[in-house]
Fold each of these.
Amino acid sequence: MEELNAIREAVIRGLHREIEARIGEATAAGVPLAAVMNDGLIAAMDEVGRRYGTGEIFVPEMLVAALTMKKGLDILKPLLASGGAAPVGTILMATVKGDLHDIGKNIVVMMLEGAGFRVIDLGVDVDAQKVIRGIEEEHPEILGFSSLLTTTMPEMGAIIAALSARGLRDRVRIMVGGAPLDAAYAARIGADGYGRDAVAAVEMARRFVER
Amino acid sequence: MRDTPKNLFMSALFGGRRGARPPAGNPTSIACVELMKSCGAFFPEAHLNPRAMADLAIAGHEIAGFDTVMPEFSVHQESAALGCQVDWGSPEKMPDALNAPHADFSDIVIPEAILEKPSLRTVLEAIALLRREAGDQVGIIGKVMGPWTLSYHLAGTQNFLLQVGLGETGKVTRMLRQLMPLTVAFANAQLRAGADAVVLADHATGNLVGPYHYRDLLLPLHREITAAIGGPIILHVCGNCLDRLELFADSGVDAYHFEWQVDAKAAVERIGSRVSLAGNVNNPRALLQGTPEEVYRQARYAIDAGVDIIGPECAIPLATPLENLQAIVEACREGY
């Protein structure tokens, strides 16, 4: 469909000033809201992730695409509310204690929102207590941690241990990411998966909520 | 050539005659908790007290066995001088900036006496101490942040990269140009204080920004910076930079310090005839979590590939075991 193509193109190219008009054209042409969301915005972010993975684009372009997607979501949300589109799942995201670098986590958050998840972002410098409170209040299916610094990597294991002690570990699937990590480290600290980039994180989150 | 640590380092820096072995060098920090304990100089004092800074730097030679010393352990000496609020951390925690005072891209005016600011004066005084006390023995490496890294600190990394993505070239370039004079002034002051070479750390990092961003926005500035600095320059850019190695070689630097993600053989083949190469032992897997044997094997791989100066890929994690650091030196001592 031409209108959906235009929406995808706007997100991929980061045309944040045009996205409102493109969505307006689509809804005027009778394109269902669910299609605008799934085949327009979400499909576009999948393509953005693919292009990042192959090195065609980098973080600056990804940030602008995510900004455009978010603008689109904000337009759709009130319209969709009456239609009752349920989120794919709920994810609690955090950058661990001692680490103030959150750009990677922010991109993952934006990509997850783009993929239809409800994301609760606890921010940076997050400790076990905050995570425990988050799980008890928000009941997420998934927990996502990031650490950009080698110095803060051990904090992830400490939080997972605290969740086990509290009897909360089995309530969530845990995914971790960040420049100094790898799959072996994720396994060692008892996480369920490691995402090497935002695309991998979204794929993993989708797998985790598949029923 | 006599195989003194200084000679080996200086010759390798310019791709000159080879001695009996490659030098073990550290363009970025090799401070770790064990090294701090061994010399009694700890973070955060070692960031702000010239004596502690010099003591910790010289421990890298006397205790770890490296052929160079490098006293700037953090990336925040300049940002602190430019008005960022910095948490100077602890022996287990690297410093971090707590705010981004120019998130609105407002004009940055470099104060005339900025080199007198405590965080910068400390580095200059530490280099002078090292020159007086060890200048006859080791290569002394200074370090400055380039305008791209300084922009991350002053505008916020994500905010700065968003403006790059939005195509706000005028805004981005203005900030870079306003910061560039500090990079040049601090580098030349370090050379005058006694540094044999300076590291230009500018994080146009692979996987973060593209080679086209570097080429269009930063390379022209790097050419101006390298033309204005009066001594040897080692460029440090993290990440997988295989897609921009030639651009780095075009920047006018004398050496490039690179990460494990870039295969040493590929780097030597592509730009080894134009610049010297320093690196590239893996930090998180080998130095932090690996065994001395793993570190040794990686260092030997780099030596066999033709890397000129052997060392960690980037500032090492503070929990790195000292024996892993020493395994790099051991690999170098075996010769070519």
Amino acid sequence: MWRPCGTFDETYQKDMAIVRTPLRWAVLLGALLVTGLLPVVVPYYFVSFLNNLAITVILVMGLQIVSGYCGQISFGQAAYMAVGAYSAAIFTQKLGLSFWVALPLSGIFTGLFGLVGGAPSLRIKGFYLAVATIAVHFVTMWLILHLEVTGRSHGLAVEPPTLAGFVFDTDERMFYIIMPTMLLMTYGARNLVRTKVGRAFVAIRDNDLAAQVMGINLFYYKLLAFFISCFYAGVAGCLWAHLTLVAHFEQFTLLHALWYIGMLIVGGMGSIPGVFFGVILIRILDELVMVVSPVLAAWFPWLGSAPAAGLGVTAFGLVLAFFLIWEPRGLAHRWEILKASLRLYPFAH
Amino acid sequence: MEGFLQLLMLGLMEGGLYAIVAAAMVLVFKSTHVVSLAHGQIMGFGALAFWIGLVQLKLPLVVALLGALGFSGAMGWFIERAAMRPLIGQPLFASFLNTFAVFLVLDGIFQLILKGESYSFSAYLPKGNISWGGFTLAITQLVSFLGSLLVFLGLALFYRWTKLGLGMRATAEDHQLAQSTGISVRGVFSAIWVLSSATATFAGLALANVTDIYYTLPYMGIKGLVVALVGGLESLPGALLAGLLLGVLENVSAGYLDPLVGGGIKEVAAYVLLLFVLLVKPYGLFGLVRIERI
């Protein structure tokens, strides 16, 4: 960790602090201020992009905890997000709860649901678990499509949240709910992974039998990982439903779940900053494809009139294969290398 | 009772197809210990190549078939060379995720080629029905089913009687031992990808015959994966049995439960079966139980 020469940790609190020097506090507060002013300054398109980005970060953060730290690969994250979105819609629209109550409540509900989905992880692992979570995805989405309470194929309409008469009905206004939630949940994840629980997760990831021998209760910790991950997914789903004002099953397909896993790989498994790198890189790639594909379609008519979907998926797959083969530790690894070389700047080693 | 038997027959016909897709994945897993998601796409491309040969270029049936098999075999070879071989020695999970990257790349290309249209094969098989003793079966399904049984027979003979098949079985036992007896393990890996891709193409042809070529065709690969897991990833007979079981289960449950819950049981029956089987027998019905050491 970079710090100026002559700064020493004299107490335990100082040693454990995330923000270590006054300069870093200044940078952090400055960055928060700039972020807070963004919706006023930048155009609408960029704000909605940022909202999308922040919700995806929350979701992938949950995936990072269960897959990156605890080693239980889950392809069910999109389905859990759907559960979060639908439960939020039911809490606020059918039960008449306030958004501020529904936000944590839909997280907890999704977490409990995730315990059911995570139950196979107690018996199986690796590929078997990955395919079992695909099965969980399909069963969940099927239930959503066929239950009366979820509005079947119509989905559920959602009203924007209000606070003391103020209605959060535009992207700029929702930004002030989504961004603080994202920061809070990032802070939570950052701290979680360096507690006893986080260390137990890492031990399970590295070798679950060895972890069990060391006295880690696999049953408890694997389910806890699924609970926390699904809590994140539920909160992301709740925000998503209140941003798009609808909870609809087409927003949560298996392809979405694959994208989230891909973001995790590109960013780097087992790293909190990695989540940001992965999400941002893949989202930018996505936007880039949106911009480039009409141009390509004009140059190469055989691509058809709307090649964006196909090109996007292909580009994403290529990036993923590139990272798996040449940079399996993801962008987070590059980031660590960059930080180390900056710290030693005038010297090579 | 009549209705039940009808559903049973229909299930067996469809199950044969699932079994072939699963067989392709079992072939890959047995020798390379990698579960491949990519075969769903290879299946789709093989069917597409066959369609182009048969319908667009108007080639004879046998030539188009050989062309499609050759094309998908080449595709399998290329995927092994470009995507799987660099990851030998890395954690197996990386290889699994890489097949999923390959799946996405091919998925995009498949969508670009299809452009949202669907192609049907009405040219080479009549789409009528056969009635016999109270049953009604579509001819296309019957042909697909018999074809898939033939493929299974061929695979069994290949594994039993050819030298390459012997090499594959040896590689499945242990890579290092196989290498030390003079078998080129890399050569076997290449061969297995070619063989499994050709097998998947058979399934693709049979499936496309029943459902037309549409952008959802490759996703049948996921169902094949489910079948392979239910049967046990190391077991070809397991793939056949699980495929037939799943086909029957899907059709029978759809026939009896759909009126009660309002349809759609067929889409979800496979996954419920998988979750159930994995909870009871984590390595599938006929899979090898692995004993782990620290």
